[in-house]
User: Which sequence fits this backbone?
């Protein structure tokens, strides 16, 4: 199997699985961290330790992290919670059309509830129009919502520039950033970044599904999304799942080991594939300077889903964003916002890598592409 | 005691003459097959009715609970040949027992039909030893129900429901009926090969032919990787839905990829659809003959798409000898969708995987082909080999 769909999800690390199995089987860590007896206390200590481990990977303080069920919950909590808690900071949100659905759906709902949502343009590389951003921020701008690395193209957000613009225009404007695709792949220093709210998902860095993180910078107040027993300082009620949090901490920690080396390795794979695919008439839709872990490519003569199924024949797994139905072809809204030609977008396939992918796999991939062109191309 | 018997009414079957016995026994067999997952049941006939009840002396948990009893009822009315069915209560005794059972039945009935307020009682007395006449029974039970249920009123002209009392060897009470799908028992009209695509039309066409008593087999043309395996799963699901009515069927999946690719590369683009239909029908006919089917069935509706114009149908029709039944030929899409919803296929049919890859469909297909078009389109194709390859490369799934 060659798995090039790591932006959808990643395989859990064996170490993570072992830890989970042990935590569930052992007699020490299954207690409720909220219980006052010894069993609860040891669970609580392990819980704080795991949070500290995560915090140190992200350069934040343990108290600034909220443990959620997924990044979508984190996005919902961050955006809704910030706007409802900070009514006086304004009623306007600025974002782009290329955000993840978790952000866009929340903003669509908020817009129907009276929040003013401004979508700034992105250029052909998926980069937000910074001049437009500068001109759009006013005293009424409560929140900016952006994605650090776009899940479809790998486009990297000019985060520093955006924070500078915010600082120069309205220091009361908070910044929410979706770090789902960059966590575990790029070194993230949240404290230095100037971001106020951020979301993460464990299963994108070889952790488990069902585990997300929300960063709320010290001093930023948000309303909780889930109410109940007041766990996690009232920010997210519900009994904490210790094994999930510990598995997330382990997965994140392991992803930081030789993070630069892995990036270099994936960059090599990425440039090899770019070169070889271009030779074969494919068009690369990811920007040149995108995160190499994502490569969006349009294959001439194959609709996205056909290529996906062709590759599936060889146990190679990739992803299509564009979906086609019998009558209408829907293309990816991200590619559409970037102004990608419709025909190219119809044939777009996303390859997404992890640190475990190898150059050998990339070479096999190219071999199979040649075979597929011979067998199934319609051109 | 709860409702313990289902009374099913036969329709067109009872109009048959000397053959009637064959139709009836087929119907009973079909009921037996359709109800096979509901425990041991006695299915017997008296006059124009079929009675379904737990085997004598045996407990049947499905009948003891209202919800599963209704499931049996709903399965019964899906069997072709049944016009309607009712859940009834069967007991022994005289007028006192009838009174008591009538009240108990009504309690259950009103729970399920809270908006029914007006009724009348109709009685039948098969057992002439019974001391009261039918009108007397009706009067007595009607009065007794009125006394017991404040919400009920009698309306002999347009009642919300009719409450029935029957006195035979046993006594029966029941109210209301669930309408069936009518038609003739499957297995009384031979077997046909249905071209099943995964869209809305073909499952409806299969259903309609089965309603005339026809057994079905189905053939599906699969073009992986141009159509996904989910499309195939969807066709299997649709075949299962049709088989609720038609009984067990075989689904033949033809591996059509290479054939379609050859056609794409060696034939005229605007004629692709008609050429493809011609090959499909020939493969279907071969499979039909091999499996004892006497006809082909398609979901074509005149003028709906390019391959369903009169000219296109003429040219696709001519390649086979077996008759092709097109039960939807004169229906518009809305009428077809209505039937599709009625048989519970619609939601599955509109799942998006069908024709996912429209790559093989020309932008401007020829809608009114002539003989020259056909000859030209096929001149570079080895049609006989395509048909042979198609027939040889099948996977057969028992639904």
Assistant:
């Amino acid at each position: 199997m060659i798995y090039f769909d790591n932006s959808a999800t990643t395989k859990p690390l064996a170490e993570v699985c072992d830890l989970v199995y042990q935590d569930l089987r052992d007699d020490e860590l299954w207690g409720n961290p909220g219980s006052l007896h010894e069993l609860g206390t040891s669970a609580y200590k392990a819980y704080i330790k795991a949070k500290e481990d995560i915090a140190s990977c992200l350069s934040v303080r343990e108290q600034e992290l909220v443990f959620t069920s997924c990044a979508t919950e984190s996005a919902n909590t961050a955006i809704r919670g910030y706007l409802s808690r900070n009514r006086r900071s304004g009623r306007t949100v600025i974002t782009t059309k290329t955000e993840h659905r978790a952000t866009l759906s929340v903003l669509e709902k908020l817009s129907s509830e009276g929040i003013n949502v401004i979508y700034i343009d992105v250029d052909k590389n998926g980069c937000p129009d910074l001049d437009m951003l500068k001109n759009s921020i006013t005293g009424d701008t409560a929140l900016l919502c952006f994605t650090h690395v776009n899940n479809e193209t790998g486009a990297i957000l000019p985060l520093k520039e955006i924070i500078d613009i915010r600082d120069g225009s309205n220091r009361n404007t908070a910044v929410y950033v979706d770090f789902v695709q960059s966590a575990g792949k790029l070194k993230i220093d949240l404290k230095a970044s100037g971001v106020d709210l951020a979301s993460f998902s464990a299963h994108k860095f070889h952790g488990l599904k069902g585990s997300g993180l929300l960063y709320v910078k010290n001093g930023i107040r948000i309303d909780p999304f889930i109410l109940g027993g007041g766990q996690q300082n009232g920010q997210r009620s519900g009994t904490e799942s210790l094994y999930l949090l510990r598995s997330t901490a382990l997965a994140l920690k392991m992803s930081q080991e030789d993070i630069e080396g892995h990036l270099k390795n994936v960059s090599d794979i990425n440039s090899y594939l770019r070169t070889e695919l271009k030779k074969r008439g494919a068009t690369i839709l990811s920007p040149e300077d995108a995160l190499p872990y994502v490569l969006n490519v349009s294959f001439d003569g194959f609709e996205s889903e056909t290529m996906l199924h062709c590759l599936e024949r060889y146990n190679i797994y990739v992803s299509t964003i564009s979906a086609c139905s019998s009558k209408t072809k829907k293309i990816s809204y991200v590619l559409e916002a970037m102004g990608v030609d419709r025909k190219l977008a119809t044939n777009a396939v996303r390859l997404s890598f992890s640190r475990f992918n190898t150059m050998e796999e990339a070479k096999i991939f190219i071999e199979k592409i040649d075979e597929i062109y011979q067998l199934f191309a319609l051109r | 005691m709860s409702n313990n018997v289902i009374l099913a009414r036969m329709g067109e079957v009872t109009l048959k003459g000397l053959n009637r016995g064959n139709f009836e026994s087929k119907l009973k067999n079909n009921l037996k097959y359709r109800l096979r997952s509901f425990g041991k049941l006695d299915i017997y006939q008296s006059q124009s009715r079929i009675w379904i009840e737990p085997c004598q002396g045996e407990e049947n948990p499905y009948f003891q609970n209202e919800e599963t009893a209704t499931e049996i009822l709903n399965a019964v009315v899906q069997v072709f040949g049944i016009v309607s069915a009712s859940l009834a209560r069967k007991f022994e005794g005289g007028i006192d027992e009838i009174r008591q059972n009538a009240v108990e039945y009504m309690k259950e009935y009103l729970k399920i039909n809270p908006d029914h307020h007006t009724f009348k009682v109709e009685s039948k007395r098969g057992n002439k030893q019974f001391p009261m006449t039918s009108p007397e029974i009706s009067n007595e039970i009607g009065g007794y129900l009125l006394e017991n249920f404040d919400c009920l009123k009698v309306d002999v002209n347009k009642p919300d429901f009719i409450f029935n009392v029957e006195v035979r060897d046993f006594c029966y009470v029941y109210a209301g009926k669930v309408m069936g799908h009518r038609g003739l028992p499957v297995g009384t009209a031979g077997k046909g090969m249905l071209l099943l695509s995964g869209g809305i039309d073909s499952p409806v066409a299969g259903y309609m032919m089965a309603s005339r008593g026809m057994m079905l087999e189905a053939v599906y043309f699969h073009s992986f990787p141009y159509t996904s395996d989910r499309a195939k799963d969807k066709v299997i699901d649709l075949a299962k839905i049709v088989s609720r009515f038609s009984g067990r069927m075989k689904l033949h999946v033809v591996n059509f990829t290479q054939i379609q690719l050859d056609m794409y590369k060696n034939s005229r683009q605007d004629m692709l659809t008609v050429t493809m239909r011609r090959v499909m029908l020939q493969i279907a006919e071969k499979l039909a003959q091999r499996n004892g089917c006497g006809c082909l069935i398609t979901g074509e509706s005149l003028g709906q798409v390019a391959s369903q114009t009169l000219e296109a149908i003429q040219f696709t029709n001519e390649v086979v000898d077996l008759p092709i039944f097109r039960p939807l030929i004169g229906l518009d899409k809305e009428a077809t969708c209505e039937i599709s919803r009625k048989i519970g296929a619609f939601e599955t049919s509109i799942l998006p995987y069908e024709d996912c890859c429209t790559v093989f469909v020309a932008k401007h297909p020829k809608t009114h082909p002539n003989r020259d078009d056909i000859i030209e389109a096929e001149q570079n194709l080895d049609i006989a080999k395509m048909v042979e390859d198609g027939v040889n490369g099948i996977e057969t799934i028992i639904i």
Remarks:
- Residues 14-256 of chain A form a domain with the Aspartate Aminotransferase; domain 2 fold (CATH 3.40.640.10).
- Chain A has a mean pLDDT of 95.
- Chain A has two domains: 14-256, 258-376.
- Chain A is about 40% helix and 15% strand.
